[in-house]
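task queued by scheduler; priority normal; single chain, no ligands, no partner chains; default sampling; output format set to structure tokens
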Amino acid sequence: MNRTSAVRLAVAALLATGTASALSVPAIADPAAPYGATAANTESYPAELLRAVERDLGLNAEEARVRLANDARSGEREAQVRSVLGDTFAGAWIDGSTGKLTVGVTDSARVDAVRALGADTRLVTFSQRQLNGTKAALDALSAPVSVTGWRVDDASNTVVVEVNRHTRDAAADAFVATAKSVGTAVRVVEVDQSPTPLYDTRGGDAYYIGSSRCSIGFAVTGGFVTAGHCGRTGAATTGSNRVSQGTFRGSSFPGNDYAWVATNSNWTSRPWVNRSGSNVIVKGNSEAAVGAQICRSGSTTGWRCGTVQAKNSTVNYPQGSVSGLTRTNACAEPGDSGGSWVAGTGFGQAQGVTSGGSGNCSSGGTTYFQPLNEILSVYGLRLTTG
């Protein structure tokens, strides 16, 4: 296997098992060559991937490399086992105590064949096909909000139905009774919280401060940057869907025209700028030269382009002057404030956030933006890139 394939398999296996593994991650013995991994396999992972595994799974660097190599091998082995077992396959998982792949089997006569492939086995009652059939039957039911979800759990050979213990009601009990009548594999687990939808923070999309609307500039770790005149420090925001989004943690206007909003756990920072419904991927923040082509995204007029005309401009707004702005001949209108400016190859280089200007997108106009790098520096923020 080449290194790229090993990394991809490692990531896939880690994502597939990460929730369970994060609860209890043992040190895996024999780090030099875990279950067939070679020294090359354990040293070829990108530094950023290793740092994430170390941080989120509580491993040191050596354990992280071993874990990723082992997970890659387990992903390959599971595919082999599936083809050997057919309908007697009952799921596979990495055992928390040994770090080794364990395979559920419904037919004792097939155990030796699985072990010959280097995996441990567990004899169970239900095949994966049967468990998936039970889950599909539950998918056809209408569930109350107090039932938070259901899933196939390979390790316990059950279909787990989760119910919020704090909101459990008669409707939840009725659903549980129906679920259990579907099949004996159903198991009920009470949980303390209910999941909520997660939303993406994307440059150019609308957000609201009370009844006022502005546009997101760029996603940063923990939130996004935007224009300072959009809101004062402490002001609450909602997203384009009017779902609670975050709070202004810093804002400067006039003098400057920049701010940043810390978002809540419903929102995920993405390295994207909205280009008429598709995404431009933000790859960096190298500043464009005067005369360069530049484009902006905003929630009122969408994607508009022009050229950089001047830097370090001072604009005297009615509220006071703002210095250090970049002047362009791209148009903008109210509501576009705070939105993204991008330039460079594929428009992947973040430039700044919309401040203000004159004219409109019918007759043309002049628009100024607050350069991004100053905002990142002042607040100590890290741009989200892809």
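post-processing summary
- The longest helix spans residues 61-85.
- Confidence is low (pLDDT under 50) at residues 1-42.
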